[in-house]
Amino acid sequence: MDKFRTEVIIPLSDYKIRHRSSILFIGSCFTENIGMKMQDYKFNVDINPFGIVYNPLSAKQNLDALIEGKVYKKSDLYHYTNRWISFDHHSRFSYTDPQLCLERINQRIDHASGKLPKTDFLIITFGTSWIYRRADSGKLVSNCHKLPSKFFRRELLTTDTIVQNYTILITELLKINPRLRIIFTVSPVRHWKDGPVQNTISKSTLVLAIHELVELFEGVEYFPAYEIAIDDLRDYRFYEADMLHPNNQMTDYIWNKFCQAYFDDETVKIMKDLEKMINAMQHKPFHPDSLQYRDFLMKQMEYIQSLQKKYPYLDLSVEKNHFENQYSKFL
To answer: For 211-230, b where at least 16 C-beta lie within 10 A, e where not — what string?
Structure first.
């Protein structure tokens, strides 16, 4: 039978991600999609301590700050429309109170910075080669926070610039953590506001830069999420209504490819054991006051207890507390 699609075949990686592994995600919203799936399956993950970032230089700036253990001060913030913002951070770190803003920013940096020397896998997703700088200072901007365009100027990174910056960064990371493994991906989200040609130039620049870095460093790999999206799943039914962002079907397909490449049999078995609990967490009872629902909750608590004995290194406290709180209504 003739083939009707070009499937992307991904070789199995020599570096296996396990539940005991420490994993740091940095990058675009696609990073968060995959990172959240790993979080659901109780992997030890830290996802975007600065919030979502799209370009390579902003991701490097984030990692430089973690290496340094940078402490942000009020002078690092910008006040706009009654909110204090950091141009290095996503808007989720913006607050009306500058002290609260700094507290949340520095807590996340302190947490991620402390884990960095023991991190096993760093997964970096590039979204675009376009960067923004402040018009007044030339300082790199990770998030424009919907300020007027006159506040910024835009430029396109070159492959050489990305490679040079990441050669320095990876060398520094390996000094503090020689066993670190780095997985690069390119987000399948298309930046259509740039136009189709500029989007292709941007994505191609990212892929070429990563290819050079993979050749330069042992322990650095590329996972072809972008290629899976545009070749293997070459159909708009795998996108959201905007025709730009991957839908759940695409994300799940790419996730399964990632699992095949980086998880061993033991990890897959643990994930299957956890699926019953994950599905139960999503259960919405028709009759929350019924005895049947009470029995359901009791079974879930017993199952979580059995999982905790079997896998004592997993943190199941969120699920445990959820079912216990629901069950307490019957007491």
So the answer is: eebeeebeebbbbbbbbbbe
Instruction: Report the alpha-carbon distance of residue 223 to residue 26 in Å, rounded.
Output: 14
Tally helices (H) and strands (E) across the chain.
10, 10
> How do residues 19-70 score in pLDDT, each as one tens digit?
999 999 999 987 888 999 999 999 999 999 999 999 999 999 999 999 999 9
In this structure, what token pair is assigned to residue 281? Answer: 């967490």
Nearest Cα to Cα of residue 203 among 186, 182, 180: 186
79 and 157 within one domain:
yes
**Distance, CA of 319 to chain centre:** 22
Residue pair 87/139 in contact (Cβ under 8 Å)? The answer is: yes
Return the amino acid letter for 122: L
Q: Locate 291 and state its tokens.
A: 């005895």
Distance CA 36, CA 254 (A): 14
Q: Say if pTM beats, i.e. exceeds, 0.70.
A: yes
Q: Which of 95, 100, 93, 101 is nearest to 81 (CA)?
A: 95
CA 289, CA 266: separation in Å to the nearest integer?
39
- Shared domain for 241 and 331, answered yes or no, is no
Q: How far apart are CA 83 and CA 90, in angstroms?
A: 13
Under 8 Å between Cβ of 112 and 93: no
Q: Which tokens belong to 239?
A: 């996108």
Token readout for 210 is 């990563």
Q: What is the CATH number of the domain that holds 65?
A: 3.40.50
From CA 125, how far away is CA 116, in angstroms rounded?
A: 18
Give residues with Cβ within 8 angstroms of 204, minimum separation 6: none
* Cross-strand pairs, 123: 25, 183
User: Which residues span the domain enclosing 307?
Assistant: 265-331
